[in-house]
Amino acid sequence: MFKKILIANRGEIALRIVRACREMGIESVVVHSTADEAAMAVRMADESVCIGPPSSRQSYLNMASILSAATLTGADAIHPGIGFLSENEEFARMVEEHGFTFIGPTPEHIAKMGDKAVAKDTVRALGLPLIPGSPGILKDAEEGLKLAREIGFPVLIKAVAGGGGKGMKVARSEDEFKACFTMASSEAKAAFGNGAMYMEKYLSHPRHIEIQVIGDGQGNAVHLGERDCSIQRRHQKVIEECPSPALTDEERKYIGELAADCTRKMNYRGVGTMEFLYEDGKFYFLEMNTRLQVEHPITEMITGIDLVREQIMIAAGHKLSFTQEDIKFDGHAFECRINAEHPETFIPSPGKITRYHAPGGLGVRVDSAIYDGYSVPPHYDSLVAKLIIHAKTREEALKRVERALGECVIDGINTNIRLHERILQEPAFRAGEFNIHWLEKLLASQAEESKKAAS
Ligand code: ADP
For residues 72 and 321, what is the distance between their CA atoms, to the nearest angstrom? Predict the structure, then answer.
């Protein structure tokens, strides 16, 4: 087993990994930017190294600095966390070339799944269902338009290098296709340095269902059930839950086994997530994330499996310690992403937290790195806490989410707690009847109402 792990990340996820290391008797090193000197993960880790100024490019994305820190501290493995370099093939390769273990998949798997066109070809060959769309990259808008006519409007134009919903545009008719294509492509070029586009049929009322998979790269792979991440705003997940209220047991078994089978056939090593859209009883593969997900704790709550621990064990060369039959799903879990942002305007709200009280009690877990007096830096994403709830049934879990949200105090900055409370009050949400467009529609209608009330 490793003696010392370097964590190349920040915020709650860095702390999450420090915690796993501590429980496993492994020393931890956290790297940080100058903006994160007072971060909780830095305080909790055994060692820390400042690797650069606030700008991510010069710190959390600076491979040379991170590798130097690993050498300096004598770490034997590097955990990339989520975001930043976690799905960077070059980084994974460099880590290994410098004699450290990369806690994650092989560079080859990262590369394969990171290129959406290659990913689709790969999983299609392994039997996963895809959304009707272009077979690969579109040469130009002309070719796109021809294909869009065949698929039928509306279509979604997507960036091959996309992420977080950037470089994505819905074209509803022939007339707007070319303008949409050009816009999406230049947005992708600006954001990812790659303007290559592909296209899919735009689904009007799908749910986002993703399957947690785990493989040991030694022929074994299982799935740990699904997560329903349909509550989204601007393609960003807001609330996740498992199991999904929309799936039947047969559907659950079907898609879980399919994803596990695919993972095994790829001889995938590490944890991963296969994302699907689900509409009218059909699943369509979206992408595979070759890393831990923000919402991984809800899976941990219903399976009792510590996913970060498993990541570390697998990276250290251990085989999976459980089979599919060993995995038992217990109860229902929700995660609310608490962001430092205004609950109505969504304007980011960095700054000093003057008072913090975390909710507690049975079935309540808070993954967060904030504390009384902590200043949320303006340089990074706005996630400050994840409220994770577990209960025997969905009904009980809903009541517990409400109860816990009511206990949570974060003063000094704006948070989206009120947004969560509003969603919780909606009969459609309580009934589990929603799709990926539901929250946006709700917000639009509420904005309309308050405009009317004001005039
Ligand atoms: P990214 O890599 O930018 O996150 P994804 O392909 O994972 O892009 O899609 C992100 C989100 O966009 C999905 O969760 C879903 O909400 C929406 N989406 C993606 N593809 C489609 C589609 N074909 N039809 C409707 N919505 C889609």
Answer: 33
